[in-house]
């Protein structure tokens, strides 16, 4: 069972690294608003750590696992762990996804509040998806997404581009277009994207597999969906 520190759960902790669960609605880092709380500072204060570096980031609305380095001498090793780790997300998407599994591959370029697909000058973005459940009556699908690159808004863009935006996504949701077709639009107060699992290996250590159960706002979408460590072996691309 994970440790609990105030409102935050710690799912893995070693001498140099830790994985903690970020709730939706709180930024990972400090923002321009100096009075706004952020996950990194709160976690550092709660654990009384002299040093805490955020190795990856999640969008404001995204919940789940965030990777931290607690030793300034291990920053390069932390970056290598992030690069070679397996990162899996849970998504609730609008619409009925036809494929059981598919891979999206394009080049993305950052804009102001969103990314866009480009044919030159962008960064390669690759995401592999597996469909776990379809609910035609409520017009949604449950998917796993494995990141093969780490671009901003990558999963959100890929699903929206394919016609299945994440439920509650205010940027890529295209809810107005979808509602014109007369189909039901599942509702959520935030984007239903969750950093579910990470598989990684510390230097000269055994492989670690961490699962962070989805929060309560996912539960009504997950009937008959079983989340366990087998998710790490479902994906074919290495």
Descriptive keywords:
238 residues; alpha+beta; Alpha-Beta Plaits; Pseudouridine synthase; 12-stranded mixed sheet; 4 helices; disordered N terminus; RluA_PseudoU_synthase; RNA binding
- The radius of gyration over CA amounts to 18 Å
Number of E strands:
12
Instruction: Tell me the CATH superfamily of the domain at 10-84.
Output: Pseudouridine synthase I, catalytic domain, N-terminal subdomain
Strand proportion, as a percent range, falls in 25-35%
**End-to-end separation:** 29 Å
CATH architecture of the domain at 10-84: 2-Layer Sandwich
The string of secondary-structure elements, in order, is EEEHEEHEEEEEHHEE
CATH topology of the domain at 10-84: Alpha-Beta Plaits
Figure out the total of helices: 4
Which outline best applies? globular
Assigned CATH class of the domain at 10-84: Alpha Beta
Based on secondary structure, the structural category is alpha+beta
How helical, in percent, are the residues? 10-25%
Runs in which pLDDT lies below 50 for 5 or more consecutive residues are 1-5
Largest sheet: 12 strands, mixed
Mean pLDDT across residues: 90
């Amino acid at each position: 069972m994970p440790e609990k520190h105030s409102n935050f759960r710690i799912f893995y902790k070693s001498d140099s690294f830790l994985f903690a669960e970020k709730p939706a609605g709180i930024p990972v880092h400090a923002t321009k608003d100096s009075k706004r709380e952020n996950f990194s500072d709160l976690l550092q204060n709660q654990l009384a750590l002299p040093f805490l570096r955020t190795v990856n980031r999640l969008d404001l609305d995204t919940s789940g696992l965030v990777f931290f380095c607690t030793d300034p001498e291990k920053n390069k090793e932390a970056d290598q762990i992030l690069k070679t780790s397996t990162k899996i997300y849970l998504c609730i998407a609008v619409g009925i996804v036809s494929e059981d599994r598919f891979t999206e591959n394009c080049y993305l370029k950052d804009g102001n509040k969103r990314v866009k697909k480009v044919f030159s000058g962008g960064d390669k973005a690759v995401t592999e998806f597996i469909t776990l459940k379809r609910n035609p009556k409520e017009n949604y699908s449950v998917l796993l997404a494995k990141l093969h690159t780490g671009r901003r808004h990558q999963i959100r863009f890929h699903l929206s581009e394919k016609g299945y935006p994440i439920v509650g996504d205010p940027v890529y949701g295209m809810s107005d277009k979808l509602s014109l077709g007369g189909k039901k639009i599942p509702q959520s107060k935030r984007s239903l994207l969750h950093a579910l699992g990470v598989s990684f290996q510390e230097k000269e250590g055994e492989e670690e597999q961490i699962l962070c159960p989805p929060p309560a706002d996912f539960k009504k979408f997950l009937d008959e969906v079983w989340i366990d460590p087998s998710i790490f072996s479902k994906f074919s691309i290495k």
